Amino acid sequence: MAIDRFTGENSILFIRSEQLFDWARRRSLWYMAFGIACCAIEGLMHASGPRFDFDRHGVFFRASPRQSDVMIVAGTVNHKMAETVKRLYDQMPEPKWVIAMGACASTGGPFREYPNVVMGVDKVVPVDVYIPGCPPRPESVQYAFLRLMDKIAENTEERLAARRDSDS
Amino acid sequence: MLPDATAIASLLERAGIVGAELSSEGGPGLVVRVERAQAGAVVQGLKDSDHAFVFLVDLFGIDTGEHVDIVYHLRSIARDEELFVKVAHEYGSDLASVWETHPAALMPERETAEMFGLTLSGHPNPKHLLLTSGSAPMLLKSVEIRTAEEVRNR
Amino acid sequence: MSDARDTVAHAGWLTADKPSLPDEIPLTLKRVPSGVDEVMTEHLVVNMGPQHPSTHGVLRILVELDGEEVIACESVVGYLHRGIEKLAEHRRYSAVGTLMDRGDYVSGIHNEMAFALAAEKVADIGVPRRANWLRVLMGELNRIASHLVWYGTMGLDTGAMGQFLYAVRDREDLLDILEDVTGQRMMFNYVRPGGVLNDLTPRAEKKIRAFLSTFDAYLDEHHALLGGNEIFQARTRGIGVIDKETAIAFGLTGANLRASGVSFDVRRDRPYAAYDEMDFDIPVAESGDIYARYLVRIEEMRQAARICRQCIDGLPEGEHTAKVAKVLRPPAGEAYAAVESPRGELGVHLVSDGTDRPYRMRYRPPALFGLQAAEAITPGTFLADAVAIFGSVDVVLGEIDR
Amino acid sequence: MNVYLVALLRILAALGLMLLNGVVLIYMLRKVLGYLHVRLGPMELGPHGVFQTLADVLKLLTKEDPTPTHVDRALYFLAPGIVFVPSLMAYAAIPFTGTWVIADLELGLLYTFAIMSLLPLGLVAAGWASANKWSLIGGMRSVAQQVSYEVPLLMAALPPVMIAGSLNLTDIARAQSAVWFWLPCLPAFLLFIVAGLVEANQTPFDMSEAESELVAGFATEYASMKFGLLFLSEFSNTFIFSSLLVTLFLGGWQVPFVPVDALGGWAAVVFLIKVYLVIFVLMWIRGTLPRVRIDQLLAMGWKVLLPASIVWVMLTGAAVKLWPMVFGGVQ
Predict the structure, then answer these.
(1) What CA–CA distances, in Å, run from A64 to A34, A88, A89, C82, C375?
(2) Do chains A and D touch (3 or more CB pairs under 8 A)?
């Protein structure tokens, strides 16, 4: 039916608007000002500083988890901290993403042998992008954000394609 | 700097402390080893003496394999002298707080007690400082860290 | 010293008739009788952190508030406890430096230096003169970088945003230099037992000279922008006073102690590296308030730049490291070595049992003692002051929790 | 034309103006703060990042809108509205030119102040309903500061009213054809700026959302577009305060030595340029100064600003009465 092109889930309008919202989400990733350890100096402080200035990409920090889209886990997560990380993640509204910054957040890093340390934040919250390095340079974090933008776009396209396939 | 060992010995004698061993061989400085029951009195006596060890630089433990050595690192600002007081504690025994003499000991005592599995007495806030309650006393030699195997299969 | 005890007893959680604050904060407000009048007022127990913009990492402060006034406060640490002391017992001497760096991550060189000095004492290693000078040079550059972070976050804590970004701008230049010499921006692992990792490259020397030529003017600008601001002075003068007795009783060291009128500096009183050959002043302030701590730190940056100039001009020729065995096996023994880190006396108490790994390494965290003092003097101030006080003693959680 | 249609169009104009204005101001804030802080601000989205705020708004619209467990549901949903509607209504009396005004009210100044004084109600509602201690403290702070500074703000606005002899904002602006009022009323002008900074919740007086103390103040628990509304209305308050300042003290839409008729429609542009210059100065202050403490702020309001404004009102009153007597009715 011709009218189907304009109503329903796979209508042009719907898909276009979904792509539009996807574009908006990609381009306005506000991260939570939540530095745990050493990486916070590089990934949060210097990242917002004059040389790297993530604000150029629309990547900006908010203090409250309710208003942020991305959580940068910048540092070692131990058993005492893990609960807080999980709670903060739960407090963020969907859609949300997590960047595990540095070796500590990815695997436990140099402290992985210590029984009190969680071996990677992915044991607590789902991680979208891992950044290697101890600590990663701000450029790496910038690249991680660009990769995250690609990932969001790919996910949307895949979702739309899957829906088209199932429909036809 | 290193204080005069004989002066410290006579000072302790005057304060009524018996059985204190002084040595400066192979140690970080002049080390006074005293009985567990006397630790508080020694620290207080050293502070009130004319050497005036008023500054607690640090308080920590060493697991020697037989017992836990609690080290009080004291400093006299007036005379510019440093002194280490070592007290042997049995595993799981009681660590008497010296916070009334040195408020600086408040947090290091909490940390030492939890890290070496000691109980803390006379402390206003004897909670764990660094670890969650229920964790093993990490700095004891008997507590193992994760093996390479565990780390690999994380 | 009854004064100090009074100060402690002032902290609400220490008095006998008051129960200590609950470990888990109830969701409802705590209703307590005000005692003065008939009205029942509510004390608010708020939980600052671990995620809070002004706690410099993951410090958690429980604050009991009567309106805006802080009645009692207790700091809860351990959210960054990573077992540096424990892991050091399982690492070779050459590898402990990597852990030390991540302790106080804002001033890595000083941490490494403390461990290297202790290891050299235990193993009885002599250090070439040039290595000592390089240690001083890098250490002082790192001190400027660390104080700049403090300056910026002090601005943030009092509500000024620009200062932080200007501080980051200058820090970038410093990190460039440090990266040029050590190969890393933060975790240097540069100072090793026996000397330093790399010699100074001509390019780094040029960069250091360029930085030092502009830094004094920048520092004056920084000082005029924040310290010269009347609002900042109103926020900091006479606030958070740590008097001499309290400072000594709580084991404060470094700039915090000197701001309270005690002239003690490890660099001068227990000279290490090449500090006995340097010519520098030790700033001391009497008032002990936040502004005094601010002034002392600003002046320390100026002195650090002065020391750097002496280092770069008079750098002696020679080797940058002594011949040290690849696997260090110091004889059994104990040693204590301290350095003047930007936060105070950073000491390493090293116990060796003759193997290639330390038997016990104790890391004396200066910021922990600063935190205790801040906790003791905060009750009776306003919430905004509490933020400024905890910021002013320069807490770095990586060092407190280890 | 139908009178209702006109009214509806005007409301829509106000709404459009407010939204557009909010979007522009957020972009401007990020750019101005960026340049003040030796960086660039948004750059990637469109030329110099002009579409950045558009993306932000769209994203906020599509975010999940969680309701925390312990909130007072009715109030939690109402609060952004209570904040948003007054700041929208306050646009009504702002004269962009002599004729371009949404509603040319006789008591325009009074109306604006009355409407603006509703704002703390919304803020304290937001703070109370959020069941968050930071929000509660933020809400309480906002009430304390707005109540203390309402009076000095009104008092500081009185001298221009007394000289112009009208509460109609258009008339006040017209009365400045000879000399802008900031010069004869310099103390009132300065008092108005300080009190207005407090009312508009701007640094160095942004007590209620002091980021380093209260996380995000009353807005801590708000997500998605509810937060967007709070955010927008904050910027619109800044705009209203600046346009009041321009209207009362900086000659409204007029340019010195240029007759009003010669400007035509450009008068609105002149007005907007003036307003945006004032906002730029506010942002400059925001990027530079530390924040005062709440007790210092309240003490300053009651002990300095209030007496000073009363004294200045009395002096102006005397001058307005004496001027015709001495110089024979120049007014």
Answers:
(1) 9, 9, 11, 26, 25
(2) yes
Amino acid at residue number D54? L
Residues in A closer than 8 angstroms to D42, CB to CB, are: 55-58
Tally of CB atoms within 10 A around D18: 22
Please state which of the four CATH numbers 3.20.20.10, 3.30.300.30, 3.40.50.12160, 1.10.645.10 is assigned to the domain occupying C84-401.
1.10.645.10
Are B106 and C362 in contact (CB < 8 Å)? no
Distance from CA of B60 to the nearest CA of A (A): 20
Residue B139 has its nearest CB partner, among C85, C364, C372, at C85
Alpha carbons D145 and C383: distance in angstroms, whole number:
16
How far are the Cα atoms of B9, B49, C12, C281, C379 from residue C37, in angstroms, in the given order? 58, 48, 20, 54, 21
The nearest alpha carbon in chain B to A123 belongs to B154
Q: Provide the number of structural domains found in chain B.
A: 1
Quote the ipTM score: 0.85
The answer, yes or no, to whether the previous bond of A95 is cis (omega within 30 of 0) is yes
Domain hosting residue B116, numbered range = 5-152
H/E stretch holding B73 reads strand B68-76
Is the omega angle on the peptide bond into residue D80 within 30 degrees of 0, that is, cis? no
Beta-carbon contacts of C141 under 8 Å, excluding residues fewer than 6 positions away, are C109, C174, C177, C178, C208, C304, C308
pLDDT of chain C along its 402 residues, tens only? 333 333 333 333 333 333 344 444 333 333 344 444 445 566 777 877 777 766 677 888 888 887 788 878 888 888 888 888 888 888 888 888 888 888 888 888 999 899 999 988 888 888 888 889 989 999 999 999 999 989 988 888 888 888 888 888 888 888 888 888 888 888 888 888 888 888 888 888 888 999 999 888 889 988 888 888 888 888 888 888 888 888 888 888 888 888 888 888 888 888 888 888 888 888 888 888 899 999 999 999 999 999 999 888 888 888 888 888 888 888 888 888 889 989 888 889 988 888 888 898 898 889 889 888 888 888 888 888 888 888 888 888 888 888
CA dist., res. A46 & res. D37, Å (int): 13
Report the alpha-carbon distance of residue D293 to residue C233 in Å, rounded: 11
CA distances from C63 to B128, B131, C35, C92, C373 (A): 19, 21, 20, 42, 15
Plot region of C395 (φ>0 → left; ψ -120 to 50 → alpha; else → beta): beta
- H-assigned helices in chain D: 3-36, 52-62, 73-89, 108-116, 119-129, 133-164, 169-174, 186-199, 211-214, 224-249, 260-263, 266-288, 294-300, 306-327
* pTM, entire model: 0.86
Residue spans per domain, chain C: 2-76, 84-401
Bridge partners for C63 per DSSP: C46, C73
